[in-house]
Amino acid sequence: MKPIEDQALYRLGRMEQENTFLRAKVETLLQEIEQYKALPLPVDQVKEKLQEQEKQIQNMEDSHRRELQQVKIQAEEEKEKTLTVLQAQITDLQQEKEAFKIQAEKEKAEAEEREKQMADAWRKELEEARRPWYRKLFS
Length: 139
Prior knowledge:
Blueprint: H1 2-38, H2 43-130, H3 133-138
Helix pairs in contact: 1-2
C-alpha cells in the first residue's frame, strides 16, 4: 500500500508542478498578448496563435486529469484489497478467540470436576479419621 501511496503522491506533486508551470505559462502568454496588441500585427494572427496555445493547454490539463483519476482508482483498489485482507484477519482472530473461550470453559469444567473429586476424597478421609477407633477395628 505504501509504494502506491508514494507513487500517487509523487505523481500528484509532478502534476501540481506542471499545473503551476502551465499557470505561469498562461500568465506569460497573457503578457505576450498584451505586447502583441501593442504591435501593429493583424488581430487574426494573434487570435489564431492564442487559440492554438489554449488548445495545447486544454489538452495538457485533460491529460493530467486522466492521470490523476487513474492514480485515484489505483489507490481505491489497493484500499479495497487491504480492507479485505484486514477483514479476513479480523474474522480469523474472532474464530481464534471463540476457540480459546471454548477451551477455557472446558478447562474450567475439568478443574471444577477435579475439585469435587478431591473434596469428596478429603471428606471420606475426614470421616474415616473421625470414626472412633473401635469402629475402625470391627468394620
